[in-house]
Amino acid sequence: MMKHYLQLFAVILFTLAAVGSAAPSPDGLVVHIEADTLALNDGEPVTAEDLVFTINYAQEHQFAEWSGPLRQIDSVELVDAMTMRFNLNQVYAPFISTALPFMFIVPKHVWENVDEPEVYENPQPIGSGPFVFDHWRKNESWRFNRNESHFRAPNVDVLVQIIPERETLLGMLETGEIDALAGGHMRGDDQIRRLQAIEEIETVPWTAGSTTTFFIHSGSEHGSDPAFRAAIHHVVPKTQLVRVLGGEVLGGTVGGSTWIDPESPWHNPDLPQYAEDVDKARQVLAEAGYSWDEEGRLHYPA
């Protein structure tokens, strides 16, 4: 249950990146974190001991959510009451910016006596974030109240209702029971057109910037071959996928050779592109030594 609760109640926790200041050593193998004065919502202070405990506990119980960052960590050490040290296995430049923000602090005095986090129900989650847990009613709702003592205290409480059926959500919007609905809850052009036909409802299109990506396992025997990967790129019907997944109303943009959205400022148009071209795919494979038998089955190079 640890993973489940860390995800569900991340809003009441605080991340290692936000708890204080972090600085790498000159060789990039050591990262120090100095914690600021923070308090848990049960009144206990947040200390570097909580930070060290969080990492060791996650490693001991193989917390899958952090498997990437945890692989970079050789060990952690407590320097003093407000300072900890990460010892990394290798230089990992984005550790502070991309690993620490996703690693939430759990209070040692709560979790140190929990031997089986997978089954621990954590009935009253404790954290140091801007919200305090109020309730969770399974398949119904959960509520977070503002943490007024937080240094960035929010101005609202949060009540999340669980509405499992999209049709119910649309009906609630149509009757005015809810005021707004994000596009991710709608599926297909028919639902969008249905809302557009209602005079009291305004539909607002925007560029979400999300990306649907297909990856080829480059660590596999055949996926490691650049020619094979290029051929796959050429035969994937990207235009049709965008039309089917995005629909006529929402639409979408065919991506390039990376996962970065072509409309993003970080998109590089000068990178190699892979046009939808089956003949080109066959050419690439043939030049790499692939062949086809009489039944059209592809054979790898001898």
Task: Itemize the secondary structure elements and their pairings.
Elements: H1 2-8, E1 20-24, E2 30-35, E3 38-39, E4 45-46, H2 48-60, H3 67-71, E5 73-80, E6 83-88, H4 95-99, H5 108-111, E7 131-137, E8 141-146, E9 158-161, H6 166-174, H7 189-196, H8 226-235, H9 238-250, H10 278-287, E10 291-292, E11 298-299
Antiparallel strand pairs: 1-2, 2-6, 3-4, 5-6, 7-8, 8-9, 10-11
Helix pairs in contact: 8-10
How would you briefly describe this protein structure?
Helices cover 28% and strands 17% of the residues. With 302 residues, it is an alpha+beta fold. It has three domains: 2-111, Dipeptide-binding Protein, Domain 1 (Dipeptide-binding Protein, domain 1); 165-204, no CATH class; 226-299, no CATH class.
What does this structure look like?
The structure is a single chain. The chain has ten helices and eleven strands. It starts with a helix and ends with a strand. It folds into three domains: 2-111, Alpha-Beta Complex (Dipeptide-binding Protein, domain 1), CATH 3.90.76.10; 165-204, no CATH class; 226-299, no CATH class. Helix content is 28%, strand content 17%. The longest helix has 13 residues, at 48-60. It is an alpha+beta fold.
